[in-house]
Amino acid sequence: MPGNIETIDFQGLPALRLSTSAGASAVVALHGGQVLSWVPARGRERLYLSERAAYDGASPIRGGVPVCFPQFSTLGKLPRHGFARTANWSVTEQRTGDDYALTTLELSDNADTRALWPHPFTLELTVAIEGGRLDLELEVINSGHAPFAFSGALHTYLRVPEVEECRLEGLYGFEYRDALDDNAIRRESGDVLRVESAIDRVYHDVTRPLLLREDGRALGINADGFPDVVVWNLWEDGIAQFADMAPTDFRRMLCVEAAAARQRIELAAGESWVGRQTLVTL
What is the dihedral of CA 70, 157, 37, 258, to 10 degrees? Predict the structure, then answer.
């Protein structure tokens, strides 16, 4: 029995539900081109989605995998994380097979984006599920006649049973910028990263896959094309700043993001760039 893709209403927003014959599923909202749910085959939900998230069609949706483009965080003059996560994307491809389901969504420049960032572009986000695997591929195409530069990320919110019991492996020896300590530059000295307080770090030029261990499970996290890894959880005091998160939700999530944050990526006219993040249950 092949996989399936159906159009659904998710909290009042149009979305796609992908499913496979083995029982894997994902939900992708057209608002923001955002993956909101991923359940691997014979597994449970692996993405955090806030119960207080806004679904008004204008605000960012808190959780899942927001697409940050053409700016990461506040590293520029645009609104935080750019405009892609609040734009309406369109579906350009849907494919299923015996053990997979895949969809591609597209966002191109329009009058609203050009008012903020005066560059012609096309984004293509491909989401594929297969057994215990979620593949995300973001392609950025410079469709204009002049070069541009951008930063961005796949801002992945992972759902965890208890963040203090998590161990993130694979970052040893990499340099990082600590946003919670005046952007100090340090080098990771531990074989395992434990999150026991607020954390907001950008790890630079990460060349190894990561492994998140928690509750007797392991999740492989691999990126390609994105040079940086962001690890983020603002803990109890920080989460109080967010009306769209419950006060104790910091215990149930950890952001491990594939990012291009330290240096902007430059694209000449007609060029394209591709970045990927893959999550695999182990």
Answer: 50
Catalytic residue among 130, 257, 266, 271: 257
Cα–Cα distance between 22 and 3 in angstroms, integer?
9
Contact 35/157 with Cβ under 8 angstroms?
no
Single out the residue of 69, 63, 67, 66 nearest to residue 46, CA to CA: 63
Sign of CA dihedral 105, 137, 144, 117: positive
Rounded to the nearest angstrom, the gap between the alpha carbon of residue 46 and the centroid of all alpha carbons in its chain is 13
Domain that holds residue 24: 4-281
Taking phi over 0 as left and psi of -120 to 50 as alpha, with beta for the rest, 104 belongs to beta
Q: From the candidates 81, 130, 155, 214, which is the catalytic residue?
A: 155
CATH number, domain containing residue 257: 2.70.98.10
pLDDT value of residue 90: 98
> Is residue 257 annotated as a catalytic residue, yes or no?
yes
Digit-coded pLDDT (tens) for 55-101: 999 999 999 999 999 999 998 999 999 999 999 999 999 999 999 99
Number of domains making up the chain:
1
Q: Is the peptide bond before 2 cis (omega within 30 degrees of 0)?
A: no
